[in-house]
């Protein structure tokens, strides 16, 4: 039997991630695994080529990370209070890339994440973080449509 010691749950505060929490909690409890809850914020330095002072972008990025960490702390207290082994992180960069990188660095055994199931133009414009993670992840990925639970 495979031992799952570390589970990664990437969230997007704009998504319906709370509907997935019972699933994630069940996995974490049944496997007695450490749960990592991760939020990835965009790297705003890519906008440095525009006519915006670099100091302003850097300051705004720092404020965005602070706000995300504050939100993550509130989410952890409210939504994950029953999880015994919990660690939260806010990362900066391309979401799929950072999720896969984090899973590799921490030796994650399982990723559980929501998927929107975008189609057509929506998919062409925004792509799919979930699909990229499934393709590149160093471990199994369980995807759950939050509208179906």
CATH superfamily: HUPs
Determine the fraction of residues in helical runs and give it as a percent range. 40-55%
Count of helices? 5
The figure for the number of domains is 1
Let me know the number of strands.
Answer: 5
End-to-end gap = 27 Å
Structural class: alpha/beta
* CATH fold field value: Rossmann fold
Q: Sum up the overall morphology in one term.
A: globular
Looking at the overall shape, the CATH architecture is 3-Layer(aba) Sandwich
Strand percentage lies at: 15-25%
CATH class division: Alpha Beta
Could you walk me through the main structural features you see in this protein, from its secondary elements to its overall organization?
- The longest helix is centred in the middle third of the chain and has 26 residues, at 54-79.
- This protein has helices spanning 21-31, 54-79, 95-106, 120-126, 129-136; strands spanning 6-11, 34-41, 86-92, 110-114, 141-144.
- Helix 3 (95-106) runs parallel beside helix 5.
- By secondary structure, the chain is an alpha/beta fold.
- The chain has a single domain, classed as HUPs (Rossmann fold, 3-Layer(aba) Sandwich), CATH 3.40.50.
- The mean pLDDT is 86.
- Helix 1 (21-31) links the parallel strand 1 (6-11) and strand 2.
- The chain contains five helices and five strands.
- The protein has a five-stranded parallel beta sheet, sandwiched between helices.
- The two termini are 27 Å apart.
- 43% of the residues lie in helices and 20% in strands.
- The chain is globular and about 50 Å long.
């Amino acid at each position: 039997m495979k031992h799952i010691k570390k589970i990664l749950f990437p969230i997007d505060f704009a998504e319906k991630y709370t509907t997935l929490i019972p699933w994630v909690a069940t996995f974490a409890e049944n496997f007695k695994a450490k749960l990592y809850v991760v939020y990835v914020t965009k790297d705003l330095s890519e906008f440095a080529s525009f006519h915006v002072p670099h100091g302003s972008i850097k300051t705004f990025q720092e404020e965005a990370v602070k706000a995300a960490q504050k939100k993550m702390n509130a989410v952890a207290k409210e939504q994950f209070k029953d999880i015994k082994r919990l660690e939260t992180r806010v990362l900066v960069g391309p979401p799929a890339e950072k999720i896969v990188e984090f899973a590799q660095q921490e030796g994650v055994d399982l990723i559980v994440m929501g998927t929107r199931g975008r189609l057509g133009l929506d998919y062409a414009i925004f792509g799919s973080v979930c699909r990229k993670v499934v393709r590149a992840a160093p471990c199994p990925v369980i995807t759950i449509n939050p509208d179906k639970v």
